[in-house]
């Protein structure tokens, strides 16, 4: 257990919890260092088949630690690129790890909290959750891949609006624009999150990994190249144990019990 993050692995599910509730889980250098280390470990561990990212206390994350920056205003930009590159490593780990990552959010999601949520593959939110990109509200530009992921999820015009104006919007708006997948009552968030995690952890992990890679890298290729990549992924999946289990289960009318291999 670390100071700023809680981390555990049970039943093939890794759980990473932002754990600075006294300061609204704000993101600082220590949290950046610990998140990079943990996401690297999770990415490399083949026994982990699903990942949860959530926040302790009353909210998911209020953004960067402004007190941390306030104490360093007179020495900026010294150290900025170091913490940014550490954050970047975690974003890359979340988006490239060959297993699905779920963000379960509540309370408030602001600034880099939105960036981290967008780096996850799926997102579920309590119905009263509030969101804001927040960056321009303090005169700074986005980080954590916000300028990359947001326009791809919600379109360029909406991304411009949310990033330029830093307005607050609710969970149903976030869902309507494709920023999150599900909105649930607050008292059902844990239950619904666990249901989703268990489903993913018992699913065809190799298939999930290739779906994730195909989608996340599709922007780099034209149609012809993407079709070829789909064929190669299909070919790789066809020799997995889970493909055999899936085909036999379908033909025998039995629910397949995937092994992740």
Description:
It is a single chain. The protein is of the alpha/beta class and 261 residues long. The chain folds into two domains: 5-201, 2-enoyl-CoA Hydratase, Chain A, domain 1, CATH 3.90.226; 205-251. Helix content is 47%, strand content 15%. The protein contains eleven helices and nine strands. It has helices at 29-44, 66-70, 80-96, 112-119, 146-154, 156-165, 171-176, 189-201, 205-217, 223-237, 241-251; strands spanning 5-10, 13-18, 50-55, 101-105, 108-110, 122-126, 130-132, 169-170, 182-184. It has a six-stranded mixed beta sheet with strand order 1-2-3-4-6-9, with helices on both faces. A three-stranded mixed beta sheet has the order 5-7-8. Strand 1 (5-10) and strand 2 (13-18) form a beta hairpin. Helix 1 packs parallel to helix 3 and helix 5 (146-154) packs across helix 6 (156-165).
What can be said about this structure in brief?
The chain has 261 residues and is of the alpha/beta class.
What descriptors fit this protein?
261 residues, alpha/beta, 2-enoyl-CoA Hydratase, Chain A, domain 1, 2 domains, 3-stranded mixed β-sheet, globular, catalytic activity, Enoyl-CoA hydratase, Enoyl-CoA_hydra/iso
Largest sheet: 6 strands, mixed
**In what range is the share of β-strand residues?**
5-15%
Ends: how far apart? Answer: 29 Å
What helical percentage do the residues reach? 40-55%
CATH superfamily of the largest domain: 2-enoyl-CoA Hydratase, Chain A, domain 1
How many helical elements?
11
CATH fold node name of the largest domain: 2-enoyl-CoA Hydratase, Chain A, domain 1
Q: At the first level of CATH, what is the class of the largest domain?
A: Alpha Beta
Could you report the average pLDDT, rounded to the nearest whole number?
A: 95
Indicate the low-confidence ranges by residue numbers. Answer: none
């Amino acid at each position: 257990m670390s100071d700023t993050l809680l981390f555990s692995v049970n039943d093939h599910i890794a759980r990473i919890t932002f754990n600075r509730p006294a300061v609204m889980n704000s993101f600082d250098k220590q949290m950046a260092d610990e998140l990079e280390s943990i996401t690297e470990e999770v990415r490399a561990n083949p026994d982990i088949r699903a990942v949860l990212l959530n926040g302790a206390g009353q909210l998911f994350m209020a953004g960067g630690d402004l007190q941390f920056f306030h104490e360093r205003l007179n020495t900026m930009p010294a150290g900025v690129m170091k913490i940014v590159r550490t954050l970047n490593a975690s974003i890359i780990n979340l988006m490239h790890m060959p297993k699905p990552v779920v963000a379960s959010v509540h309370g408030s999601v602001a600034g880099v909290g939105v960036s981290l949520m967008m780096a996850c593959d799926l997102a579920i939110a309590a119905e009263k959750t509030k969101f804001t990109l927040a960056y321009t509200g303090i005169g700074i530009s986005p980080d954590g891949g916000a300028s990359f992921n947001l326009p791809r999820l919600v379109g360029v015009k909406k991304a411009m609006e949310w990033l330029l104006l830093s307005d607050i919007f609710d969970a149903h708006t976030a869902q309507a624009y494709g920023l999150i997948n599900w909105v649930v009552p607050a008292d059902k968030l844990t239950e619904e999150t666990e249901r989703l995690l268990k489903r993913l952890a018992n699913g065809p992990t190799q298939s999930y990994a290739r779906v994730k890679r195909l989608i996340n890298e599709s922007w780099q290729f034209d149609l012809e190249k993407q079709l070829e990549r789909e064929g190669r992924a299909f070919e790789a999946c066809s020799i997995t144990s889970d493909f055999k289990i899936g085909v036999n289960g379908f033909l025998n009318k039995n629910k397949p019990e995937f092994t992740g291999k």
